[in-house]
Design a protein that fits this description.
It contains 5 helices and 7 strands. It is α+β, with helices and mostly antiparallel strands. It has a single domain, classed as 3-Layer(aba) Sandwich (Aminopeptidase). It has a 7-stranded mixed β-sheet with strand order 1-2-3-4-5-7-6, with helices on both faces. The mean pLDDT is 89. The structure holds coenzyme A (COA). The site of coenzyme A (COA) has 22 residues, from β4, α2 and α3. Coenzyme A binds next to β4, α2 and α3.
Length: 191
């Protein structure tokens, strides 16, 4: 299935001016949150919700909140420890809720919202080491594909380590065609 081109998607901070009446993710709890609680939570500075639009209709949403993760060694799943925990607590952003309209499942809107969250977290003026989510059972694989892993023994919360995302991006940058050709050019000019 080919995805919706990113240029056809736009994202705006939630406000009372948007019509949410047609939105249906197929999950009653998530629909109810968006329609009845998201603005109140936003006004109370508990979470912020961004709406994703496709052709003037709400295609999906993501709600995020500041959080922290306690890196107590005895609570960590030994098979999943991916770094030495230097600090007892790490700052993170919790993806409190994320859903896509069921008519658009499988077209890349969810991935687009996740990449948006990664961008926000990495460019935030505040430090943020992890993105966290308590995945619904049916969405586990969706998060795994982006690199989220269970970290604690409770297997309730998944984490994406932004340090590793950043390292991955730097590796990809070194494959960037501009960078490669600039290198070639400077080699040529130095003879
Ligand atoms: C889970 C959800 C957000 C995914 O959004 P989406 O726009 O359908 O996902 P995408 O099209 O971006 O899919 C990205 C990848 O994840 C996979 N994927 C998406 N949903 C999946 C699922 N439920 N199970 C397994 N894989 C899934 C896709 O096949 C795709 O894989 P690919 O890159 O190999 O092709 C969406 O299905 C949804 O809103 N579900 C109902 C609400 C929900 O469960 N929200 C999550 C709360 S934690």
């Amino acid at each position: 299935m080919s995805g919706i081109p990113e240029k056809e998607l736009s994202v705006l901070l939630h406000s009372s001016r948007y019509d949410l009446s047609q939105f249906d993710s197929g999950d009653a709890e998530l629909n109810d949150f968006l329609k009845n609680d998201s603005l109140r939570e936003q006004n109370e500075f508990l979470s912020k919700t961004h709406l994703c639009f496709y052709r003037d209709r709400v295609a999906g949403f993501i709600s995020m909140a500041a959080d922290s993760v306690q890196a107590k060694k005895d609570k960590l799943d030994p098979s999943q420890i991916i770094e030495d925990c230097e600090y007892p607590v790490y700052p993170c952003i919790l993806i409190a809720r994320l859903a896509v309209d069921k008519k658009l499942h499988g077209y890349g809107v969810g991935s687009y919202l996740l990449s948006l969250a990664i961008g926000y977290a990495m460019e935030s003026p505040l430090g943020c080491r992890y993105l966290a989510v308590d995945p619904k059972k049916g969405a586990l694989e969706f998060y795994e594909k982006t690199g989220f892993r269970f970290w604690t023994k409770s297997q309730r919360r998944m984490f994406l380590n932004l340090r590793y995302v950043s390292e991955q991006m730097q590796m990809n940058d070194s494959l960037d065609l501009w960078a490669r050709n600039d290198n070639k050019k400077s080699k040529l000019s130095t003879g």
